[in-house]
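Journal club prep — side note

Before the paper discussion, L.F. wants everyone to see what a predicted structure for a comparable chain looks like in token form. Sequence:
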Amino acid sequence: MIDFTWKVFSQTGNIETYLLMKELEDNHKGTNEPNGDNNMVEFDSNF
């Protein structure tokens, strides 16, 4: 999944995709701590 988000970001330059990739990396490493609603990700409707 991280490779896919990197590929999409590299092709589109969409910063939201990059931030999603970083969040996925943090979750994969076990360093992401839940902070309530701050963990929700909204996808770009123009994607």
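L.F.'s comment for the group: Residues 26 and 32 are 5 Å apart (CA to CA). Keep this in mind when we get to the figures.
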